[in-house]
């Protein structure tokens, strides 16, 4: 079991690294190592050497080791959660850093337990054919800063289960959380199976162009995802790209505003809005628009915001100063566009930390910047609609399709509406909930490829048909 102090000491360098600061206080946490292209070449060579032996262990032994890794995470979960809160900013409690550390363990155990048997696809007088899934080789994974440890586990757990080795680059904003997770699980994994290389965007670009990766996984912006496609085209690795979202929600006129308000709030404001599949624009039928706005504002007003390490906080700061500026600019533009600030806005711009209050904006035109651009922060635009077909058209109008939601007292009606929305996942009477057995991925500008469950295992493998 690790303490926060021992974990921090294990992943920081005394000098010569990049500064990592607490987004709640602007105080230095520590220096993260910085790696470059030569380090990448060495790490890939080590991973390539280790991969055949790791694959040869077989599913049963790899699963045993993944469960042992989950045990190690559980033993050091509080130290990992403390580090996540200090580095990324999310609170310890609620859907925060303790939730994130627990999710790491859950995804490791699910990857270990999910069966993936050969599929007999032909068996008749013409012959037999069986579909198998083999390791892709060395997997390169590039992660984001919003859920650094959890999304790292989403990437490396299935990849390792399928017999691949993994070289991973965390976001330059949150390297310590991923280095700490690797330090924990590498207590039980063989050498060379999982390597974390902290570095800047140049390192990420070098990974995308590296010819030795059989598979690349990326979670982040659509712009960077497109750059990865271009850079990797020369050697054609398989790709899983979970990219930006601008998730719509549609509230039908039969919904109960008081009953759905808290779930709506957390659908939008989990991790202070810094979640790819968070609810980012809400269309509410005009007959209940005001009631929904009032109910949401009441929930927002009672949610405490403060440093992630405070046991009282349920909302934390934005992770980076740049993200604070993006949210602030979009809200100010929304006010200039005629939007009505129901609650929030007006941050203390001179105070320490990247705190932006939970903000609700109504009376916006449909083409307002806060509606059509992904804010990735705690500012939710709420638009009234009269015609459901028009609301669905607005939900589908953008080049984003990660998630969406429909809210109604009639689940069957909501399900019919959900089928008309262009998104990889459409939730009914909830938003953004993911499960390690339920496939997850986007369409349109939100990327392609599936993660989680059986489909997630297949996505980090190479199909092979043996026909007789």
UniProtKB/TrEMBL annotation:
This is NAD-dependent aldehyde dehydrogenase. Residues 19-461 form the Aldehyde dehydrogenase domain. Belongs to the aldehyde dehydrogenase family. Keywords: Oxidoreductase. CDD domains: ALDH_AldA-AAD23400. It holds the Pfam family Aldedh. PROSITE patterns: ALDEHYDE_DEHYDR_CYS, ALDEHYDE_DEHYDR_GLU. GO terms for molecular function: oxidoreductase activity, acting on the aldehyde or oxo group of donors, NAD or NADP as acceptor. It comes from Saccharomonospora marina XMU15. The keyword Manganese does not apply. The active site is at 242. The keyword Repressor does not apply.
